[in-house]
Amino acid sequence: MKRAVPASILKPLAACAALATLAFATPALAQEKTLRIAMTAADIPRTLGQPDQGFEGNRFTGIPIYDSLTQWDLSKADAPSVLIPALASSWAVDAKDKTKWVFKLRPGVKFHDGSAFNADAVIWNVQKVLDKDAPQFDPSQVGVTASRMPTLRTARKIDDMTVELTTSEPDAFLPINLTNLFMASPAQWQKKFDAAAGATPADKSKAAWTAFAADPAGSGPFKVTRFVARERLELAANKTYWDARRVPKIDKVVMLPMPEANARTAALLGGQVDWIEAPAPDAMPQITQRGFKIYSNAQPHVWPWQLSFAEGSPWLDKRVRQAANLCIDRGGMKQLLGGMMAEPKGTVPPGHPWWGNPKFDIKYDVKAAQALMTQAGYSAAKPIKVKVQISASGSGQMQPLPMNEFAQQSLKQCFFDVEFDVIEWNTLFTNWRKGVKDPSANGANATNVSFAAMDPFFAMVRFVSTKTFPPVSNNWGYYGNAEVDKLVADARTSFDDKARDGALARLHAHIVDDAPFVWIAHDVGPRAMSAKVKNVVQPKSWFIDIATMTME
Which region is the signal sequence (predicted)? Predict the structure, then answer.
């Protein structure tokens, strides 16, 4: 079933190409290797250390500019991305007190401003998002950080190259969560603070962070050289980067926000950029015919509707939730996307260590869905009304408007009357942390925010634990009960890998059977690139490493 993308959503390629030609500067001098990227975001993700714009921010202004204590191995396309040392060379939980972790730091690392990375820098960066009394505390960075590492509480210096991190409870997930805490230079921020105007220390701090964002210093493989909000970000290679394997061979990277799929595609075909995220599905044959390469890979990235369990929600009846999961024609949607999606059976696929063999089988079965809806008291004459808050573009949202419209039509045959509240991606992402009970939900009883599922907290815990209700983390719909909390605790306190996987498998099976989501698609991360871009590894991850790429 081929479904054309409406003209109201994606503008004609030729017109977009003409506009794109006017929007871009002349390519860099021939001798300079420059990689130009069109992102799906409508704005440049924040550059001050903790990016916004979801994980597209981590991918483009987090990982290239900054480092974290731990990071993902993005060097393989044929194996899962696993956790590896980064600014921490090793770590261990205290045998007697599993709320304490000791991290040994990597010696000899310098920030872009030349200052040294050490234990004091780690403590400073923990305080920037957790200690309200610290001069560098920045409320604007808390939401995108604390919700991703909710148990971290304090950092203590043992010596210059050793820190102790303390959690609020035993938490085996902490080393994974720390991939989201990027290390900014305290010395560079202090220079901005000393020069900042402001009536109070808080005013000066806010001004200092604004100045830092325009002239940041991380320790990553690329340095910021130019930043123009909503227009472009330019990076230069950090030739003294501490990891010899990731010292960039590309001299310059230019990142451009371009939320419309057809505009991105036109820019690629017109030679204005070398790499686009999420190309327009209908244009993929033309892209490959013109000699461009399309990269994709199975990845832990879920495209769902997350459902409300607040009082009065139409999703409180499990029969309705399961019916919606049975009524989505995922095969038809996959055809709409030119094959660039995987059909989910849950948050993780069968065969995954966390699968757990749930009893409920997510598939396309209209008759079974209609029977469940009839049992729940609904019919064609008496449909159930649901409202979903969605975005028009952004990050891992894939092609959100045509995909949601397709789901809307699919669900109609099972007595669902679906309404959409379409808002800007970063606003949707912010609303995700506020929860369904917040006015920002605008009456919606479901939200469509895609999410990465490469670690237990991100994949499951933050959506089902009663400890992660807003604003702590992303349990937008206030789902949870004592049984789920027990399953979460079993997993979180299992420091043995096999025992932890077993606990997570039980948790995943319970989640699929209870269906707090409508699992619609798994992303495969399609991106199209010029053949001039070499050494591209598309890992089984939401992230990708620019540092190891080359340009002809």
Answer: 1-30
